[in-house]
Design brief:
5 helices, 76 residues, mainly alpha, globular
Length: 76
């Protein structure tokens, strides 16, 4: 149970856009072979994945890591 709580806390502290994209990717590709799933993700069909790549949070994550601080996610 402690592991489940720890995982849940990590998800709560994660970037909201990234979590939305991961959920969308899992829902749409979990039954596909890996190669097909990668093609699908790169095709641009998904709503959340492209927005994550060009978001403020995409800049904040690596910046916070480089500065050795916790990221401040804005969800945009």
């Amino acid at each position: 149970m402690d592991n489940a709580r720890e995982l849940a806390q990590q998800l709560v502290n994660s970037a909201p856009l990234a979590i939305a994209a991961l959920k969308e990717i899992y829902r749409t590709t979990s039954e596909m072979p890996v190669e097909e799933a990668y093609r699908y993700i790169r095709s641009g069909v998904l709503k959340h994945y492209p927005s994550v790549l060009h978001s403020e949070d995409a800049i904040e994550g690596p910046l916070a890591f480089a500065e050795k601080r916790d990221p401040v996610w804005k969800g945009r």
